[in-house]
Design a protein that fits this description.
683 residues, 3-stranded mixed β-sheet, binds zinc ion
Length: 683
């Protein structure tokens, strides 16, 4: 599970020279070259940034080599992610790249720029749907212009393995220009067939009812250690029968997976014995597609809390499946930030105390919290669903029974939040949206500490807390499950951030850190995050829904006492928290109910909560937020280019690995498409 894809959220960092909390992360960055810029590109609602990898240079060479090989494995999954997001994505991307690299006509016209922008968006989203909202992009160039360029592109620059020339153009016209075709990547609208109406390439030729019947037929409800059914396959109908096309070396996506396992084996050859076994088990799983082996891998992986270098590589998160079974491919490669890890170690050492004091029904508390390990990490490579848009925290594995029996590993990605902060300095966000000077001051002083600790608590304790009632499987909440789960983790973090225990543990100097976080969280949930949504649309993404749910519920529950207030001043709307202690109590109350819903698998209550508070937007407020946001010129979404790594060898021996921060966005995308792309255009 992930926290983040920040953008607006992290505008809290929009202040230069903030006084960092005592346990905040490193603020020195020795790896930044002199001509370095944080922002490398900007288009539409997106800003592309760089991140740096502090302390990479001082790692032992074997660890650098391990990072290099795992990094190659991370890059080889890119096409899988793209194809998963919609079956025509690779055809669109490859066609546009073919046009982009071969067109010899005017490269300055408005239509050309619109086409270039569209391609940059496709790269950023790994497909034709917005990475966050899931809505299909609207091209700002005409179908005629596209045909003109397409017809001028030589055969060898087009993905004609998908279809003959003329046919491919017909399909692309429909996919790119027809707003009704593949309109939504993941449709979660209540009352619709979410399988048929979702463009995501997880199901084809079958209905929601057929998919649900299939899953019911393969599940063994008596298995206390169930595999993650359906996690690594596409569901299709063959001869009238529903079957799985499994993603493994000998099956769908095999050509990409072979390259992933090649580099994983190189990584295993330089890893320590513990990690060697972990990586080899992952390779076994990629070779067999057997989900029991995936569980075995996850257990080995979660138990390794010692290795300095770590990674995620596989079909991991199920947010984009409307039914919550199938996982998108992703990868990160990282190593520990020793200094900042002290902070998360304090939290995880006290995990049982937090569990015992969680404001939930004692029946739903874990009697014994197992192995919650938490660390602050520096990422060195991002791939698949984690690239270019990036989470700021990750907690894995996702299987409930493994979490219960073996615990989970939780990370906060410090060099990413650091880069966000640097890139947001002085953008005017707080001055525009935070009404009271005292709140602005607190955000300036404690914003980064509060954000980091909230992420730590969310990942390290929140997702791992609580337990299901006997007989509850965990998939009862269907399309509302992800939102509720994120709300649960966020509420856990919000509630305890304001607990006196945080001061006692030396993690914060005072309740002021919670005040800073609460003020920003509520403002973001009720108002500023709406800048990410197009006019007329509703909130769809699970993390955004969760934030809106929490903020709106607390607003309504505390309305009579004025806990949260909507203030109008000079025609502008502000969200102000008047009573922080009362707000904390409300977080606790909502957590009680959210945990009950999850533990009992209460679908009706879950749907009511989400549909009532998390989905619909007041159009007037929405328009105002968009206008004020546009006036500031801040792109609401950010993502990152990766650094490049170069092997330095003497004979056969790797003697060093050099890191470089000069590659631009377009160059990197074209290079990845050229060097890490062996999948057929249609899979
Ligand atoms: Zn989460």
């Amino acid at each position: 599970m992930k926290k983040g894809f920040i953008g607006i959220t992290m505008s809290i960092l929009a202040t230069a020279g903030v006084a960092l909390g005592t346990l905040s992360c490193t603020d020195t960055d020795t790896t930044t070259p002199k001509d370095f810029t944080w922002e490398v590109d900007k288009f539409d609602d997106i800003r592309v940034l760089r991140y740096t990898v502090p302390d990479f240079e001082s790692l032992p060479v074997e660890q650098k080599e391990l990072i290099y090989y795992l990094g190659q494995a991370a890059l080889w999954g890119r096409d899988i992610t793209t194809d998963q997001n919609c079956k025509w994505n690779l055809a669109v991307r490859r066609t546009l790249e073919g046009i982009y690299t071969s067109w010899e006509g005017d490269r300055t016209s408005d239509e050309w720029c619109a086409l270039e922008k569209y391609l940059k968006k496709v790269w950023f989203a790994n497909g034709i749907h917005h990475h966050y909202s899931g809505d299909k992009f609207t091209p700002e160039f005409s179908q005629e212009y596209f045909a003109e360029l397409y017809n001028a592109t030589p055969d060898e620059a087009l993905p004609l393995d998908a279809a003959p020339r003329a046919e491919l153009l017909t399909v692309l016209n429909d996919v790119i220009f027809n707003p009704a075709s593949y309109a939504t990547r993941t449709n979660q609208r209540d009352g619709e067939d979410v399988v048929v109406t979702s463009a995501i390439n997880f199901h084809e030729g079958l209905t929601q009812a057929e998919a649900e019947a299939y899953y019911a037929s393969i599940q063994d409800p008596t298995d206390p250690r169930p595999i993650s059914y359906g996690l690594n396959s596409k569901l299709v109908k063959e001869n009238g029968k529903v079957v799985e096309r499994t993603w493994y070396e000998g099956g769908m996506y095999g050509e990409a997976i072979k390259n992933i396992t090649y580099w994983l084996e190189k990584a295993a050859s330089v890893a320590n014995p513990t990690q060697k076994k972990i990586i080899e088990t992952l390779v076994d799983y990629y070779r067999s597609g057997n989900l029991r082996t995936f569980d075995a891998y996850n257990i080995l992986w979660v138990e390794d809390t010692v290795s300095n270098v770590d990674f995620v590589n596989g079909f991991i998160e199920t947010y984009n499946d409307p039914l919550g079974y199938k996982a998108g491919w992703e990868s990160t490669v990282n190593f520990k930030n020793m200094e900042a890890t002290t902070r998360t170690e304090i939290i995880s050492e006290n995990a049982q105390w937090f569990e015992d004091h969680a404001p939930i029904n004692p029946a739903f508390r874990k009697a014994e919290v197992k192995g919650v390990s938490a660390k602050v990490i520096t990422v060195a490579m991002l791939g698949g669903e984690c690239y270019p848009a990036t989470p700021i925290g990750i907690n894995l594995p996702n299987a409930d029974w493994i979490r219960k029996e073996y615990g989970s590993k939780s990370v906060t990605i410090d060099n990413i939040t650091y880069a966000y902060g640097k890139a947001a300095e002085g953008n005017g966000f707080n001055e525009e949206f935070v009404l009271r000077a005292e709140d602005r001051e607190r955000i300036k002083e404690f914003g980064r500490t509060g954000d980091n600790l909230h992420t730590d608590l969310h990942e390290c304790l929140g997702h791992g807390s609580g337990q299901l009632a006997p007989g509850v499987k965990g998939d009862e909440l269907k399309q509302y499950g992800s939102t509720l789960e994120e709300a649960r983790a966020d509420l856990f973090g919000l509630y305890f951030l304001g607990d006196p225990k945080m001061v006692e543990l030396g993690l914060v100097p005072s309740f002021d850190v919670a005040k800073a976080q609460y003020a920003h969280y509520i403002m973001n949930g009720m108002m500023t995050q709406l800048a990410r949504i197009e006019p007329g649309k509703t909130v769809e993404e699970a993390h955004m829904r969760n934030r809106k749910l929490i903020a709106e519920w607390c607003y309504e529950q505390g309305k009579a006492d004025g806990v949260i207030e909507m203030v109008k001043e000079n025609g502008k709307t502000y969200v102000v928290v008047n009573d922080f202690e009362a707000l904390r109590d409300l977080f606790g109350k909502l957590l009680y109910e959210v945990q009950r819903i999850k533990s009992e698998g209460d679908f009706e209550a879950c749907r009511d909560l989400v549909e009532c508070y998390a989905v619909n937007i007041d159009p007037e407020l929405h328009a105002e937020v968009l206008e004020r946001y546009t006036a500031l010129g801040i792109a609401p979404y950010s993502g990152f280019v990766n650094p490049t790594y170069e092997l330095i060898t003497e004979g056969d021996k790797v003697v060093d690995i050099k890191i470089n921060y000069t590659e631009g966005y377009t160059k990197q995308m074209l290079r990845y498409s050229a060097d890490y792309s062996t999948l057929p255009t249609l899979n």
